[in-house]
Amino acid sequence: MVNAIRPEQQRSGTAVTPDQAEFREAMAHLPAAVNILTTNGPNGRCGITLSAICSVTDAPPTLLVCVNRSSAMHDVFQANGRVCVNVLGGEHQELAMHFAGATKVPMAERFTWDIWDHTQDVPVLKDALVTAVGTIKETVPRGSHSVLFVELEQIRTRSGGQSLVYFNRAFHRLEATLPGTAR
Questions:
Q1: How many other CB atoms sit within 10 Å of the CB of residue 109?
Q2: What GO terms are given for molecular function (predicted)?
């Protein structure tokens, strides 16, 4: 997300097909909420910034989360089986950069800051717009990614504040508007 790939490049540096380039360009124009997916357990503690998350159903509450299989954290999420989706507010752009690997801050240090609640079995961002803790119930591999179906056991929302979204290969802050006040 942060280290955006230009449509004409792949992570390996080889050229992509015109269809892949067109798809990537189209997806760059799809605004998406910015999230940090976290886990902790016998296989380690880690987190990653991502935007490929959406609701599946409310009975039982389930989210769909896409994680690149080439990510070093992919197998940790899978093996631990428990995750927290932390939906970021506008003030969390720097944090999103850290968890996207765009800074030199080591993973272990990212969790030492006093912004995390470590009383649960997974790290929960204290002031996230939404935190959703759950268990990975199913994984479906598709192309370069795994689609994780996460059944939620705990959901917390925070009222007010801006939302952090990713659009056209850049972060943007989205203001909430009151009904009847949209321009």
A1: 10
A2: FMN binding; riboflavin reductase (NADPH) activity
Q: Are 31 and 167 in contact (CB under 8 A)?
A: yes
Beta bridge mates, 48:
37
The pTM assigned to this predicted structure is: 0.87
3-state SS, 22-71, equals HHHHHHHCCCEECEEEEECCCCCCEEEEECCEEEEEECCEEEEEEEECCC
Mean pLDDT by 10 residues, the chain (183 residues): 42 76 88 96 97 97 97 96 98 96 95 95 97 98 96 95 91 79 56
CATH topology of domain 32-159: Pnp Oxidase; Chain A (2.30.110)
Cis? peptide before 60, omega within 30° of 0: yes
DSSP letters, 86-110, are EEPBGGGHHHHHHHTT-S---HHHH
Tell me which residue has tokens 């039982």: 60
Torsion of CA 109, 115, 120, 123, to 10 degrees: -50
Token pair of 180 as six digits: 């009847």
CB atoms within 10 A of CB 17: 9
